Amino acid sequence: MFGSACEADRAVRDALTRTADAGGADALHSLIREIFGRALSVPEQAVRHRRETPSGPWLPEPVLTGGGALGELTTAGSRESVSMARLVALERLTPAERAAFVLTECFGYGSAEIAAVLGLSETQCRTLRRRARQRVPASAPGVEPPAPQRWRWAEDLLRAAARADQAALTELLADDVVAWSDGGGVPGTVRRPVLGAAKVGRVLARLITGVPPGTRGRIAEINGDAALLATAGDTVVGVVAPEFGPLGLVGIRTVADPGRLVFVNRQWSAADRPAD
CATH number of the domain at 147-270, out of 3.10.450.50, 3.40.1350.10, 1.10.260.40, 2.40.160.60? Predict the structure, then answer.
């Protein structure tokens, strides 16, 4: 809803404080109204500004989701709801369409309940829901590989990256793979989407060779699925989030802009993890 994990965290904390006296179902409804009201109050100019970043395509802030950080993500639908691909698709909606979609898909609200939250008529909310469904691609059942396969591919990607092995990188990619990067001033990143296994393999190899010495890569659950986390000392300096298809990786999203790594760095600093 906010396009920012940091802003979402602030909004939830503030809303919990303001609705602390409510109880039961009223507490949840009051909390939802507070949060969605705040999200819809963000000026459209600010929404456009975050989409038009000078360093490349807008990408969501990566979030560590292992250990139940965003609740149980045990189904394909729950993982997809916080995936980078889904968040990018939602960013293309108007704020009201996005609210109607999230309230429907994540909270199971009908048009009457959405109308009560958004302060609109049921007819308007039905229209918003229909438009949002038309603009957000539906998931194709049975297309996602099983979890062990996805994590194996992520591990293979990490090994190929550690060797800067362009051939091995390319072999993991589907023919129609697309890569996006937010730039972040990192050598080798590109400002426009790159299409095709050969081109994406070259971009990944170039990106890896530009990584500063001492950077460490590891696998972590990011936005509900296996991804690569790059750290320099105790700081997360990059995230490579694959999108998995039946024949390999169909998407690669690289987040290297320090401004979009603030939240994941907070999580990483607070994480209970073994020493390197």
Answer: 3.10.450.50
